[in-house]
Amino acid sequence: xxxxxVIGQLGSGQVFELSMDLHQGMPHHPVHPPFLYSMxxxxxxxxxxxGVSSANDIFVCGGHSGTxxxxxxxxxxxxxxxxxxxxxDVQSLQGGLAVFGMETVKAFLCRGxxxxxxxxxxxxxxxxxxxxxxxxxEATAKAQxxxxxxGDAVLVRTGWINRWDAGDYFxxxxxxxxxxxxxxxxxxxxxxxxxxxxxxxxxxxxxRKPVHCxxxxxxxxxxxxxxxxxxxxxxxRYEFFFAAxxxxxxxxxxxxxxxxxxx
Length: 263
Description:
This protein has a single domain, classed as Glucose Oxidase, domain 1 (3-Layer(bba) Sandwich). It is 20% helix and 28% strand. The chain contains seven helices and 14 strands. The chain has a seven-stranded mixed barrel with strand order 4-12-11-9-7-13-14. It has a two-stranded antiparallel ribbon with strand order 2-3. The longest helix has 11 residues, at 134-144.
């Protein structure tokens, strides 16, 4: 379905924020850097004429801070990236990736679908380590009356974002998510982006990271993580216009995004 058709069906649709706030002290993955913020120039520090002043700030973050999109170069297997690029040939400390950096990632402006697996199961938050396979995804889509189409952004809700302030959101021992069979089912529909409200999209733990390898290396499908899907779930908005614009950071393996759904 093209963008014009989707927008035409929405009319004056409601805008749903899907991104989490970025702030000092926010949760972060243990292998990723924290988000750092400072107002380095406060009002009154810099003064203009007639009592006018301005403030300015600085923030530092990793490419995978908060709600973010993975580049296709985020993962490798045996030090080989997508399309056979050897990591040693295309990566550097200062330049990042010479291929598949975030500057190559398009803006995502497309039809979006919510597969609310948690609600379909009657659960607010799904159990740690629950693997969402293709049968459960298919059953959820059927129950919601939605059909996946090529080019869609498909967002899977586990309810895990409700653990954001609980201190264990980035739990390494078990987080619900999609397994490889579910990823293959999504990819077979020709989706453009797969997203979820957990931090890895795929089920945790599995140190092989099969879904990341399958999507990013084999199929060229970007992954959106740490999405807030609660408002969409509460209002049962399963189909919408989806927009997410990554920062064009040259060579980067990921980028925070401001993602919205209009339904």
